[in-house]
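Entry for the shared binder. Reason: the reviewer on the internal report wants the predicted structure included alongside the sequence.
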Amino acid sequence: MAEFATGSTGRVFISYRREETAYPAGWMYDRLADQYGDGQVFKDVDSIELGDDFVQVINRAVGSCDVLLAVIGGRWLTIADEHGRRRLDDPHDFVRLEIETALTRNVRVIPILIDGARMPRADELPDGLGRPWRSAPAASSMTLDDS
């Protein structure tokens, strides 16, 4: 597992939902880590050591990154918890916390739309996420290639 290089520049945080976009997030992590080094790219399962406090590590990593890639699949807005409530509406939802923290700290957030997903409208997002994301067009129509 790699340690996130908090003292350097060009750090990338990959935010994703495991049940929907784990493969594209892993694919991006592998390519970015190959290009820029493991310490420059953060993805939870590849970057958190066993026994670390998950919440503290996530908060520290988001706060020290230069860009957050929000990997958004077709169900990103509607994925629900075990009670049928939309997870984005839970103030403790990790994806929500990651993006809110990035926006609060003026970290550039780049939505990556996967498998035909559309860019969420501000009125579909909880208050902490409803302000416009600073990245104009989202990256979309991603094709995953092993090369």
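Summary line for the report: The first strand starts at residue 12 and ends at 15.
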